[in-house]
Amino acid sequence: MKNEEFEKLKNRIAIQSMIKILGYSVGIIFLLCILIDGIYNDNIANSLSNINRDMYIWCVENKMLLAGIMCFVIFAMVSFVVLRNVNNNLVEILSAMDEILKEPEKQVKLSNHLFMLESRLNNIRIDLISNQNKAKEEMQKKNDLIMYMAHDLKTPLTSIIGYLTLLTDEKEIPKNLQEKYLNIALKKALRVEDLTNQFFDITRYNLQSMPITKQKIDLAFLLEQLVEESYPMLQEKNLECILNKPKTIPFLGDGDKLARAFGNLLKNAISYSYANTAIKIEVKEDEDKIQIVFKNKGDKIPEYKLDKIFDKFYRVDESRTSNTGGAGLGLAITKQIIELHHGIIYAENKDEFIVFYIEFPKDTIG
């Protein structure tokens, strides 16, 4: 329950209690006056006079005091009854809140006059169940990820140790084999470095928001550099990357973070492209926005997965091997970086292509 709603509820209970106390007190005093004045008339006074004349005279002389005492006693008694009822309500509410914490699946039941609060507590209960389920799901994903990463680290490390052991133990290995083993060991070592970086990404991504430092950059030059740096990865699958862009694209943003976001998209395209095909990157400008499109030819992403691919730890193809599969964090980080630059990112299947769209508002241009 929000603070404002809690304050309103607290004030309403206080006002209702005061109205009850004053209303009941005035009502009882008025009723007593009618009974004494209308039914008993002077019978009470005559009886008191017959019992003790001095007491009767004192009561007559101090009738205002006695009336005040009577009103105070009635007010105190009514206050006690009303406050005890409020206290019973609070005990009932606290017991219900305790039950929510112990058994959130069990529906809250309060007295009829607390039906509005009962509805609110049940809403809180439903939110609590939802949050608990989300927390369990996140914890399970983290545990699964740690298991995957531990396995993924072990695989290349075993290869590195094996090939280096061969080079150490075998003294007469031909030079061409030595170079082959060293290249394999280097490749596996780079894979270990990549997985280690992913571990750091996971820690940063979950423990703090990603800081960005904006400055004037050229998006066209940044994308051009990115394509050049990806040449070895493209060659491995005999892929081509075609970049269509304006000569320059002035932009106000964090160059390192944007390079990382675009790099994640290009790596993703390389991993999921058919061999001997082309990856196309196209940049378009109009009056309202800058649009960057990454398009590759590969197996379509199922429609129900298109909205999930930007979730943390989500893998489109869960069967991918540790040699190619990542931690399922790249696209989630990409989305965060794009949104920190006030942009949006989304994906779709278009004919035989998988297409990622990034759009920045025009006012982000440097």
What keywords describe this structure?
alpha+beta, Helix Hairpins, 3 domains, five-stranded mixed beta sheet, two-stranded antiparallel ribbon, elongated
Protein topology:
Elements: H1 3-40, H2 43-51, H3 53-61, H4 63-102, H5 115-169, H6 175-207, E1 215-218, H7 219-229, H8 231-236, E2 240-244, E3 250-253, H9 255-272, E4 278-285, E5 289-297, H10 303-306, H11 330-340, E6 344-350, E7 353-361
- Distance from first to last alpha carbon: 44 Å
**What's the CATH topology name of the largest domain?**
Heat Shock Protein 90
Order of helices and strands: HHHHHHEHHEEHEEHHEE
What is the number of E strands? 7
Q: Rg, please?
A: 39 Å
Helix content: 55-70%
What does this structure look like?
With 366 residues, the chain is of the alpha+beta class. It folds into three domains: 3-102, no CATH class; 138-207, Orthogonal Bundle (Helix Hairpins); 215-364, Histidine kinase-like ATPase, C-terminal domain (Heat Shock Protein 90), CATH 3.30.565.10. Helices cover 64% and strands 13% of the residues. It has helices at residues 3-40, 43-51, 53-61, 63-102, 115-169, 175-207, 219-229, 231-236, 255-272, 303-306, 330-340, and strands spanning 215-218, 240-244, 250-253, 278-285, 289-297, 344-350, 353-361. The strands form two sheets. Strands 2-4-5-7-6 form a five-stranded mixed sheet, covered by helices on one side. The chain is elongated, with a radius of gyration of 39 Å. It starts with a helix and ends in a 5-residue tail after the last strand.
